[in-house]
Amino acid sequence: MATTISPLAPKSVPTLPPVAGVRLATAAAGIRYQGRTDVMLAVFDNGASVAGVFTRSKCPSAPVEWCRARVKGGRARALVVNSGNANAFTGKTGRDACAFTAKIAAGAVGCKLSEVFLASTGVIGEPLPAAAFDGVMPRLVEDATDEGYVDAAGAIMTTDTFPKLATATARLAGTTVTINGFAKGAGMVAPDMGTMLAFVFTDAPIAPAVLQALLREGVVDTFNAVTIDSDTSTSDTLLAFATGAAREAPRIARANDPRLLPFRKAFNAVLANLSEQVARDGEGARKLVEITVEGAVSKQSARRVALSIANSPLVKTAIAGEDANWGRVVMAVGKAGEKADRDKLSITFGGFPVAVAGAAAPNYDEGSVKKHMEGREVRVGVDIGVGRGKARVWTCDLTHVYLEINGSYRS
Amino acid sequence: MATTISPLAPKSVPTLPPVAGVRLATAAAGIRYQGRTDVMLAVFDNGASVAGVFTRSKCPSAPVEWCRARVKGGRARALVVNSGNANAFTGKTGRDACAFTAKIAAGAVGCKLSEVFLASTGVIGEPLPAAAFDGVMPRLVEDATDEGYVDAAGAIMTTDTFPKLATATARLAGTTVTINGFAKGAGMVAPDMGTMLAFVFTDAPIAPAVLQALLREGVVDTFNAVTIDSDTSTSDTLLAFATGAAREAPRIARANDPRLLPFRKAFNAVLANLSEQVARDGEGARKLVEITVEGAVSKQSARRVALSIANSPLVKTAIAGEDANWGRVVMAVGKAGEKADRDKLSITFGGFPVAVAGAAAPNYDEGSVKKHMEGREVRVGVDIGVGRGKARVWTCDLTHVYLEINGSYRS
Predict the structure, then answer these.
(1) For residue B383, what are the β-bridge partners?
(2) What is the ipTM of this complex?
(3) Using one digit for the tens of pLDDT, what is the confidence trace for A126-164?
(4) Which residue in A61, A126, A314 has the most chain B C-beta atoms within 10 A of its own C-beta, making it the best mutation to test that interface?
(5) pLDDT (tens digit, 9 = 90+) per residue, A365-389?
(6) A195 an active-site residue?
(7) Is residue B6 situated within a structural domain?
(8) Which chain A residue shows the shortest CA-CA distance from B409?
(9) What is the CB neighbour count within 10 angstroms for residue B11?
(10) What is the DSSP string of B245-260?
């Protein structure tokens, strides 16, 4: 856990209201860190609908495989998350550690193994000492309260510099429901999935298939539009839980139910808020970078160009150096391999044109651009000029702090 | 031009013998730098076969477009290369600068416009002050000698810390022919094409189509197997010239001519030597990294996995930190999206097993691995375990020096 808070952190940590049907607790199990919490439990006493999206890594962690197999069941009673050890690339030992953790959680909560969901974050390739959970699990279940969100968000941090929380309410056919979420990110963050771990909780009565549809659509322009360093984790996990404790609200069983619209909007706002916080806490980030690409042949094409820019070390180091180096943006557009016409390409920084129709802008406002580059939030706009596809992604600059964090993380 | 020579530089700069039919000269035209040469001319008094491979960027530089259109003609009389300005993203001005440069070169040499080849490297998006060539061109033609290779290699450097030269001889049906080459690289280097600029010269009588075939095959496991920072330049250019001045040798008109075999071997050795020097001079490089992937479903698949590892900032920072962090290698294998089976994956550092069949190696020789990581050359081996495809790529570590170079290059 880094000691200096990112200068891009939100001014304050939001206070999350309770979500009926969700209780949380944390403990220090001593998985890797000393003197801090490293395990969190969420209990859904009356169960919850569950949905999840996971890393597309071909070498996923054991907990990702565990969840992927069980999310189809659609029903959750408990979520156990630890930091310090990712339980990834741990072979049979890793699978055993999952089964063991689920068993003690199921025993303490009083549910089936298949109703326990797991996530782990931290070092890869070392066996997870799951026995450590055994000593803390009964007390976690007992201690869990409906106010534990900030502590829970803190317990799952690794190189994060601040806890990431978001909340929203929505009207669901006349009843107000709550949506809470927290996430961790920082490094090894790239689309498919965009963050390492994120969890969203609501008291709305949403059927699992509907929750899954909401999640799948919701991540496209939120978590999957964030890239810190192009490296996709083995462990990326986003789980959503809907307890249905808001009993006055109607149970939503179809994704195209028109009553779902305000909920969908609030749900997406929570995902957007959390994913932006992940970008704001990219390892070593000193500037939040928003990249908007328009005029591409399709949304997909715009997205690929935007990610090519967002993942370019040369663009990211230029932004770190407050250098309005649009030549490197041109380079990144070109290397994306998507349809582009150099002589139609236009680029803005902070809305100020720096390149127009394939050449330097004639009335380049150097002072305004310089001032924009010196700020905490840098906006890069690209108009490819060949179509109507548009996409937006978020990243951060590449700084010496990133190298310091990652050159000595394990040792 | 950096002041500190890369610690990975070859012990000495090779002395290149003359290649009959090739004369070289350099000058200080003041394009951008002060007090150094920044333009080089190669003259082929009796003409030469020419072949070229170029960046696949969708936003190529004006000289790349110039060469691509003219290389089909197969005939060269002059090559003009400048550093300091890439003449990329310069619109009509850029095309005009190419035409102007070619015109004064053709005038001074006494050849057609279509026999002049051009390359530029340096800052993107600023007009190339081609008029500066006008003052130096006649003297360049006059001064050109057959011994100017080291000076020529120096004139095209940008952030390179040492000139990159290589030479070889080969027997061509009883006659000894010479192959000389020089290159520049350093930053914005990634496959398709692998280096910014490289030029190869031979006195062998090779038909243009054969030279093109040699080049296309030769780059696959050499220049296109080198990545410094995953960023593909707008300007990558590799041109080969064959003067045919070795008149005793037979003219080779078919790529499958068996007499070509020893020449092909020597030609590929020059490409391999130059491309390795590019990796050794990656911006900020402190360690040369060789990544070998085997057991993939195909060579192409192995290559994609190898590049995913080579381009991972987390792998590169770990190597910079001398950390045998094979978990990040697993991550990079997983994110490549290629067929892999976590439980069959094995990883070595310097030949020492660190992970076997999907888990940490049981008898991990920590001392030997540590010693290997502390060296100047780091070898990462990955066995995917699902097929017979194999590929090898070269990169360097990601250090603070890379950030220093690229956070302040333009300003």
Answers:
(1) B294, B346
(2) 0.74
(3) 899 999 999 899 999 999 999 999 999 999 998 888 999
(4) A314
(5) 889 999 999 999 999 999 999 999 9
(6) yes
(7) no
(8) A318
(9) 4
(10) --TTSPPB--TT-GGG
